[in-house]
Every structure is written in C-alpha cells, then in structure tokens.
Amino acid sequence: MLDRIGGKWTSMLVKLLASAPDEVRFSELKRGATGISQKMLAQTLRSLERDGLVTRRVEPTVPPRVHYALTSLGRSLETALVVVRTWAEAHMAAIDDARRAFDRR
Amino acid sequence: MLDRIGGKWTSMLVKLLASAPDEVRFSELKRGATGISQKMLAQTLRSLERDGLVTRRVEPTVPPRVHYALTSLGRSLETALVVVRTWAEAHMAAIDDARRAFDRR
DNA sequence: CGGCATCCCCCACGATACTG
DNA sequence: CAGTATCGTGGGGGATGCCG
User: Fold this and answer.
1) pLDDT higher than 80, residue B1
2) Nearest-CA residue of chain A relative to B75?
3) pLDDT digit string, tens, across residues A28-68
4) b/e per residue, B9-38, with b = 16+ CB within 10 A?
5) pTM higher than 0.85, yes or no?
6) For strand C, is any atom closer than 7 Å to the CB of B31?
7) Which residues in chain A are closer than 8 Å to B7, comparing Cβ atoms?
8) Angle (deg, nearest 10), helices A10-19 and A72-103
9) CA neighbor of B75 nearest in space, from B8, B20, B32
10) Which of A3, A98, A5 has the alpha carbon at shortest distance from B53?
11) Which DSSP category does A63 fall into?
C-alpha cells in the first residue's frame, strides 16, 4: 500500500481530486499537477481507478471529455494522507536542518 | 517527504524501532525486517539518521555493536504512519476486490 | 558484527510522436 | 481532448564479496 501512495504523482492527484467540489477533467488535472506528463497522468489515474479509489466518466462527444472523481474509498485515503502531509509540513524544516548538520561532517 | 516514507523499508524499520522499548541492534533489525538485505538496512538507517529521525550509537568493542533508536521526531513520524497503516489494513481487501473486478474486463 | 564496494537488473518515469 | 505507442534513462534495490 505504501508503494501505491509512494508513486510520484499519486498523492498530488488525490489531493487535487479531494479539493475539487465536483468531478475534474483530465486537462484540469494536468494543469493542476504541474510538471506531470500526459503519460504519467493517464497511467496514475488508471491505477487509481483500478484500485477503486477513483471513478472515470467519459462523455461520448467529439472531442471526448473525461471526468474523474474520488470514490468514498478514495476520500478515506485522503483523510489518511492529510495526516502525513501535515506532519511533513510541520517538520520539513527540522529535517532540512538535521540533513545539513549531518552533511557538514 | 512521501519519497522518504515511500522507500521500501522505511516504514517497516520505523515501526520496528517504535515498538521496541529501548535501542535496537543492527542484527535485531535485520531479523525483524524479513527479506531486507544488509545493504538496504544500512542504507535506510543512514538515511533516517541523516534526517534526524533515528539516532545511532556505536559501542567501540570488537566486534562492534551498533544501536539504533527513534528520536522524538522519529516517534512523531510513527504516529502519522500508524494512520496510514491502519487505513491500509482496513481497506486492503476492498482494494483487492476492486482490482480483480477491474482486471476481469 | 556491521558495514562499504562492486556489479547488475528492472522499472518508474520522462520526452516525443501518433491517433480516434 | 484524452489518450496509446515507443524509446531511452536514472536510480532504487538485490547479490556477492571484502574488511576493520
């Protein structure tokens, strides 16, 4: 499970989806997750969908519109991720300090 | 930060150190973390020490004994990790189901 | 005992190009 | 627009061997 969360973009995408009121389009996610490639976006979303964390809805128009949203399972994951994110933000500075002190030797 | 946690053995080692009453020796950790190689154990511990999450104490005997323990920062990380672990255990089955259903198509 | 050093492999990820 | 296909790369991780 930590492997799943550990993916480079997973946490960011879950956060984006969680903070949106409704569904989010592929292109919106691409804009929101700065630096992500189309490939990794599609791949990560697919993996999240596979795990039942995200739903995918296609509007059969031309060109198509694809909408993503968290499932209830996905939202429950977000609540766990919030804890980790909060911890990280709170202690990031301390870790940086420790790292510099360690490297000075 | 998620990269740090995402390391294959980090979470397991933090858990081992957290559940021990006192310091833990290198070889004890090696036994506790089934499947870890000496290289990854040393490397992960070094990285944790660098980040100020773990202390390292060497008894200058022959052969040497090296003891590891969580710092207070490390213990605070463990409380965050517990949340994720709990989530994972609670929903592992649901995810497996979703995965199988998805793959069946 | 507790590590480094070395070699090797795999795959997550990136860049680019193509398509319904 | 929202993907697939293809190719190339870095580095995380395993196996083995040596050493104070």
Assistant:
1) no
2) A87
3) 999 999 999 999 999 999 999 999 999 999 999 999 999 99
4) bbbbbbbbbbebeebbebeebeebbeebee
5) yes
6) no
7) 6
8) 130
9) B20
10) A98
11) S
